[in-house]
# Entry
Amino acid sequence: MVKYVYSFGAGNADGDASMKSLLGGKGANLAEMNKIGLPVPPGFTITTEVCTAFYELGRTYPAALAAQLDEAMAKIGETVGKQFGDANNPLLVSVRSGARASMPGMMDTVLNLGLNDVTVEGLAKLSGNRRFAFDSYRRFIQMYSNVVLDLGHHLFEDILESYKEVNDFKEDTELEASDWEEIVGKYKSAVEYETESPFPQNVNDQLWGAIGAVFKSWMNNRAIFYRKMHDIPESWGTAVNIQAMVFGNMGETSATGVAFTRNPSTGEKLFYGEYLINAQGEDVVAGIRTPKSITKAQHALMREDGQSLEEALPQVYAQLHDCYLKLENHYRDMQDIEFTAENGQLWMLQTRGGKRTAKAALKIAVDMVAEGMISTCEAVSRIDASALDQLLHPTIKASYARDILTKGLPASPGAAVGEVIFSSDEAEEKAAHGHSVILIREETSPEDIHGMHAAKAIVTSRGGMTSHAAVVARGMGRPCVSGAGEIKIDEVLGQFIVRGRVIKKGEIISVDGSAGEVLFGAADLEQPELSGDFGTLMAWADDVRRMKVRANAETPLDAKTARDFGAEGIGLCRTEHMFFDASRIAAVREMILSETKAGREHALEKILPMQRQDFVELFTIMAGLPVTIRLLDPPLHEFLPHSEEDVAAVAAATGLNAKKLLERAKELHEFNPMLGHRGCRLGISFPEIYDMQARAIFEAAIEVAKNLGKAPIPEIMVPLVATRKELAILKARIDEIGKTVMTKAGVNILYLVGTMIELPRAAICADEIAEVAEFFSFGTNDLTQTTLGISRDDASRFMGDYLSQGIFERDPFVTLDQKGVGELVKIAATRGRAARAGIKLGICGEHGGDPASIEFCESVGLDYVSCSPYRVPIARLAAAQAALKSSLG
Amino acid sequence: MVKYVYSFGAGNADGDASMKSLLGGKGANLAEMNKIGLPVPPGFTITTEVCTAFYELGRTYPAALAAQLDEAMAKIGETVGKQFGDANNPLLVSVRSGARASMPGMMDTVLNLGLNDVTVEGLAKLSGNRRFAFDSYRRFIQMYSNVVLDLGHHLFEDILESYKEVNDFKEDTELEASDWEEIVGKYKSAVEYETESPFPQNVNDQLWGAIGAVFKSWMNNRAIFYRKMHDIPESWGTAVNIQAMVFGNMGETSATGVAFTRNPSTGEKLFYGEYLINAQGEDVVAGIRTPKSITKAQHALMREDGQSLEEALPQVYAQLHDCYLKLENHYRDMQDIEFTAENGQLWMLQTRGGKRTAKAALKIAVDMVAEGMISTCEAVSRIDASALDQLLHPTIKASYARDILTKGLPASPGAAVGEVIFSSDEAEEKAAHGHSVILIREETSPEDIHGMHAAKAIVTSRGGMTSHAAVVARGMGRPCVSGAGEIKIDEVLGQFIVRGRVIKKGEIISVDGSAGEVLFGAADLEQPELSGDFGTLMAWADDVRRMKVRANAETPLDAKTARDFGAEGIGLCRTEHMFFDASRIAAVREMILSETKAGREHALEKILPMQRQDFVELFTIMAGLPVTIRLLDPPLHEFLPHSEEDVAAVAAATGLNAKKLLERAKELHEFNPMLGHRGCRLGISFPEIYDMQARAIFEAAIEVAKNLGKAPIPEIMVPLVATRKELAILKARIDEIGKTVMTKAGVNILYLVGTMIELPRAAICADEIAEVAEFFSFGTNDLTQTTLGISRDDASRFMGDYLSQGIFERDPFVTLDQKGVGELVKIAATRGRAARAGIKLGICGEHGGDPASIEFCESVGLDYVSCSPYRVPIARLAAAQAALKSSLG
# Structure
């Protein structure tokens, strides 16, 4: 029989940390913590296989589940000496989701399950704390009603607020047992009114309801959106964790908190976290009360009022300190932990690898190598390559005179400038129209994910460093200031007030997430200095990396940036960008309007010196390194104005004939320009264009070789080749021009002529093409378009449907479609090498900067990847990780 | 050492008829005729390998050629007892091209080579005919100057005309030896003036000049155009044939002619040909003098003046009769022969398989089986499947009252209606703009090929049944009337006059190529009855055919036509054609404008009964046969009007909101609609559309099954699938609807759900897709577009360059690109079968009607091909031929 339920408790566990696929991250680590002797409330995990079965069986359960569940519940009862549903000695449990990958805030949780009108009295007697019992019951009703019965929180909040108003209470702490009892009655009436059914009193119904809600929440919109954003396959499913309740809300020696074993923002080796006395777990994360620091040192640093946990409950702190050291030593990584203290006894509720900023990740990895905890290869493997992107976010220039509106918590580093927006929907809409927006909220919830994603930065007036806003913003790499309590938002008036200043929606502010500052106006931003840890780790990465990393760059600025980031050459210089330059477009248009070869040549002669100068600049920056130059690629109509207004403007500015311009634009119109008269087809029809470009390349290379004594290595790339003969014809011309230019200059330089593999036919006929081509560069953007038959420009109409229905697990324009496009890349690599041993192979599509795609490139044995300059560090690291992975197996 | 030169003569030959690739058709057959004892002037063939080398070596020759050439020339001299360049006994030779495939009029010929100011005197003495010698010399100068020195014929014609005018001569025959001698002097002066160099007197220079001209002519525009039109690869090259001259212009017992062993127009078993007394070979083909019939019977039938060859030179006729019978028995096929009689002695200059109309091809093949000459399989193999198309040309209805302008020769069968046009360039231009044109010329030359191709029919006022116009028109399947001598063309006035009637350019006339009639006005045309020979041959073809042949059809008329032509089902019914119907487009547009699923469903409910009725009609015609129905494929914007005028018209006509129409059209605009939101992507986004179509199909099939007691076999085809999951999602819905409809009706019918393989990814992932798909139909139109990255609608801008530069040997949208697209088809077939044994495989792109592509389909083992109804007979025959070829090896 399939084992659906894995128990743990009292130092034993059916599972362990290696079983994340089956038990989810939380479940696997609860089992592991049991095994290493940490205090964990006993419980069990229902496997992710049940989730998969649940959906396959039309939202019903495998038959064998019920018996296993009963047995596991009984086992908890035995361990804690209570019984589920017992009137006098009731067992209460928590029900939590737990997927393979951490999905904070996405899945729902129910605490205090097992309370009803009878057991609440038992709990009151047992605890000797009637107020605690009814506070727990009202929390349970609200949470259960929200998660399982789909009722809004506001229903319960309104009841509580109005009760407090009528009775003149300010704070929840002022309410006594009888107050909560009365509120529980009101809550139950409200549920019955809304659902036309009383609040469930049968504890087994409660249990099954909560389990079902967890599984159903796997397919709610927030979860789907989060998975899409984090590339988590739908097929993984979630597990359900059920544990005996421990209560942080049992009085002044009870508490709950979350902590990181090192600082998740900076990586510093300091125990770091927050807690609340007399509270339940969700209170900290939800950001409803602002928590205090755990350590005395941190408490002092943050200038908080009240006491740190270290001071308030020193015994609990001692247990916690012991646990965190054990955890870090055991897991050999920074941990993110949740705990609860019940009457002075510490209980560990969760541990997991802590999310961290890229900067922290680097520091922690480098520190742990220094501490002898991990090897340099492990350090390299540990960094999420994509997350390095965060390090490249701008910061505010030191010279900028800051007009500080307010300060909050430095919840996520980086700086941004944008318009003030108060709603996530509006943020998304504005961003879609090209606006930079800053999202300002009292607090955020999973419903705000899309708005946070759309925003350049997030500011909240409530919540701490581990609030929803802070955690999610760090994950997204968005600057965030949380808990900026001076900000008073008035959504109705569309403004916020801070220290008496009124800031209207749409006004420009700046956010410094590293300093926790919100500034008035548009700050001057600059790129960050990369830390020493960055350099250390990149050096380790470069040591193990096999593939070279180049950049896609055409301007001197891009090329310079790329080289600074460690690019080992240019993998794609798109020459058409040079043609669009304002100083040249007139000559380009003159060429396009020419009806004769002679006319075109005349116009091209004007472009030649400018094009040569472009290459001189690039080659100077890249002296001694390979520079792949793609000859003109886009269809000619892209260089012409199209609307009558644009045509008139161009005609007036250039003296070209407006009618002729318009006619020519119409004449060149294409139904499917992506599949039209472009790439090497232009070279075949108008050989004089490529002739000019080849001449400019050779002349520039020779000039740089003479000036610097160090020649660049031009790799002349012919785009959109489908047949051997296209390349043969064009290569013959290029070689001829090279010979002429070099003979005239009396200088010989090394160069290669090759092609992009960006059409399925080119991949399939790579053997023939490799007879002529000296290198291949996989143009996976176009190869994806043609292989899948999807126009990237038009895909948005259905890509959402395709991702949500799981037709594509990931957007194939972001991560290479390995089964389809990847297979063609493999075929081309194999056939190309068979025809020309050691042919140089690279990739220059946007996939060249995507870690998953880079891993694929390593597996195919490409020689290099090329990506945008800012992704070069990511590619260097991802290539190193891919090499390590491939060496392992 | 490579053998570049193959000699023949006096009953011996180095080569034979099997060596056409190396020796060209003419050379191989000259060798073969020698071997079977026919009288052939001795000579030799320079191989096609020399032509290839000539271009590879930058228009120079392999070093070893010269010595082999000298030796072969000496050998001719020995055989005929003359010497090349000898003053007293000069050997004269002809130099002719001869490619592997016959290319009439494409390549150039030089006769009488070896004449100069010295040898002409020797020839005069030797022949005792000074007039003949100088007539031959002036012919040589003109021909050589035209072909080798690139001077126009008019230069020489003007000199001759003005000489005749000054001396008051009417006919060439009136000129005497001294006249020709004087003209030779004028010709030489003219050459020297034009080329700034005297006419070459060195006979070896002459020889190398002529050989070079033949090789160069392989790459002239006419040859390139002809190859393109006839799918002849450039790589084949041409051979050069050099033979001792024999003279048909040596007097009244000399003659020259061409003949067919059977009638090339009807196929009747009658010796058939034309000759001219005292003329050289090119005179007949060029159509300058109108020749007479060879046989007495034919002469009488044609009511010619003068005498037939049978009467005029009975001894020559007897030799010829003997030769033609030997040739037909030897080659077992109808032959096209050229001969010359010199002083009563017959010499065979050429034999080759005779070009024939499709009708003649059928009759000859069927007759030869009856004569016991060939087997039925040979008969099937012999017919050019593409040429069957000719049989499907319209004829003029018997009931039509003909207003006959004039009669000429019935040079190529079929009938056509069009505007009178006098120039080939104008014909091409008008045709490109959709006009039907009839090309009227005095005579045609290879320069007119593009105009003839563009025209619906050709009429010439001069020339016979074997004139250029006649031969080419038959090859192209264009109706042609030749030698319509009553027509007087006045190009300047843009008109022709016939029997006093003036017909202006642009007026409509009709041509009956079978009757040789030119009619005023637009005749009523009808499809021809297919002859009994057609049925006989198709039955033989069907006996050996393995693949089924289906038709692409969506209207009842098309389906009926297809079934009449022998289609065994429908391979592609495009349902969008039904949506465009005027009576439905309003509901379709209403659906597209709906913003909700409910709104779309409401509109679809209106379409359902109409769509169902479409299928009822198709299924009734195809009862018992498979019908593949493709669900909606094009992007929705194709159904909307786009310009503001169209939108206004549609809005007025339908009551739909104009502004909304325009907005929706703009909203749906795509950059690359070919790669956009179409095919199954519509089915994923708007499942209700495919639901309606599936319902219509099932309901219609059940209705027909009930009505006829014979159910159709619907094969429901999901287009543009790239992934297994797309098909899985849609198939589940279709199956569900099928189940519902069948349960309700209480009837079960067989059906299949499958997909088009039209994207490279689908081909590559065919194994996964075949887990779901019950059949594959290769949509090679779109597969070609995506694999090659070429938009068919935009390809015309560069396809010409690509064909002329040999990048594509054939247009890949006409004949399947086997190396690229074909490889994907193979991969898909192999992987598809591996995943689902016996999965049904077919092709429904336009390649399904192209014989070369059908041969490929046989080699991959497809189950059927599907093509347009009128190409079904072609596909049946081509499939049979492919099966025969594949059974041979």
The longest strand of chain A covers residues 345-353. Chain A touches chain B through 48 residues (CB under 8 Å). The two ends of chain A are 33 Å apart (CA to CA). The first helix of chain A runs from residue 20 to 35.
